[in-house]
Amino acid sequence: MTFISLGPMLPSIEVSVDFANDPTSSTRTWVDITPYAREFATRRGRPDALSRIDTGTLTLTLDNRDGRFDPTNTSGAYYPNVLPMRRIRVLAQWLSVTYNVFHGYIDDWPLSFPDLGKNALVNVTAVDALAILPLLDIGGQSYAAQLSSARGSACLNTCRFLAAEMNIATGQSTLVASGTIAADTSALSHLLDAEASENGLLFADAGGTVVFQDRHLRPKNKSASSGTIGTGGGMIGYRDLRTSYGVSDLWNEISVTANGGTAEVATDAGSTASYYKRSLAWPTGGNYLVASQSEALNAAQHVRGLYAAPALRVHEVAVVGAAGTANWATILGFEISSRATISHVTPAGGTITGDKYVEGIGHHVTLERDWETAFQLSDAPSQAVWIAGDAANSLAGVTTVAGY
């Protein structure tokens, strides 16, 4: 790996493409194209905890004055392998530690010739593994009743994902048998149903691994903050912070319909009296694959507990790593579901504080100039979640936020 420095206050980067191998190959032959990179931006995740994860994207501007990225240039350095769906990765390095920024598949090599044709650029676009899953048909498959994690593994195995490209947490919910899945059913649609039924999370991480997190992962494994974003000494500096305090995140009547059963409804009478009835059929989109009526009720009560009351929610924060370079390791180490603390003092002397989960991550890098990072956030419970039978998470009167 050859990293190029962006300056003394910024991480170094490497951008590489595997021109030689098909994306389904287990072999990787990375070719360093960093010297031709001018600017890139990545975005992965979702805007909030009630949304589904979006396909991760990369946009990358390359200098193409010698024509090496022109797919029709038979004299080009990479001809004839300047092709769609070739794998691409972006790595960062800080204090000799390497971090994944993006791993995905190139979907376009569009040429442009600005400056009256005297310049030549390629504005590459790429997507992560979530864009591949809709292309994989699991029609004709039949899965037994099994934990959501086992269903996720089985579905990805059907699609011939390598073991190294999967990270599946042990699920908590048992999904009903699928029966014979209809033709033209994409792997993504079925995996999203499993995700919603578990109340978990499905995403592609910065290294290209497909991750399935169960609903216990955050309260059990992400209970400690990885860093504080604020204006105090040693904190991660920021340039902007976006909040809401309204009805867009307020739901006081939650209904969950058990698979093959009836709807279970959890209502908060006090919230309904104050803010009128605000109904949410959960999960939002997709099919609920759990047959248990009691679990459906638990799910409804859990969502109601999180959203029945208005709260000042911090949805996004744009951080400035160069303002305190000791924080680059934390910024680059954040992944979806990482826990961070917000500590903001308003001009009027008030405070906005609390722990948040990272829901989305975006980087915008101009080489030799700037590195901007924005995190989309959701509220983390102010108390640990109560999980029956778990010694660390079932302390009556201490861990009192309902979980299931």
Polypeptide structure, described:
This protein is mainly beta and 404 residues long. The protein is built from six helices and 27 strands.
What proportion strand? 35-45%
Give the termini separation.
45 Å
| Class from secondary-structure proportions | mainly beta
The global form is globular
- H/I helix tally: 6
Tell me the major beta sheet: 15 strands, mixed
The average pLDDT value, as a whole number, equals 92
Poorly predicted residue ranges: 395-399
Descriptive keywords:
6 helices, 15-stranded mixed beta sheet, 3-stranded mixed beta sheet
Provide a short characterization of the protein structure:
By secondary structure, this protein is mostly beta strands. Helix content is 14%, strand content 36%.
How is the secondary structure organized here?
Blueprint (H helix, E strand, L loop, with lengths): L3 E2 L6 E7 L12 E2 L4 E9 L8 E10 L23 E8 L2 E12 L2 E2 L8 E7 L14 E2 L2 E2 H11 L7 E3 L5 E2 L3 E2 L6 H12 L2 E4 L5 E4 L3 H5 L6 E3 L7 E7 L8 E5 L5 E5 L1 H7 L3 E3 L11 H15 L5 E7 L8 H6 L5 E7 L5 E16 L3 E10 L5 E2 L14 E2 L2
Parallel strand pairs: 12-16, 17-23, 19-21, 26-27
Antiparallel strand pairs: 1-2, 2-3, 2-6, 4-5, 4-24, 5-9, 6-7, 7-9, 8-9, 10-14, 11-13, 15-16, 18-22, 19-20, 22-25, 23-24, 24-25
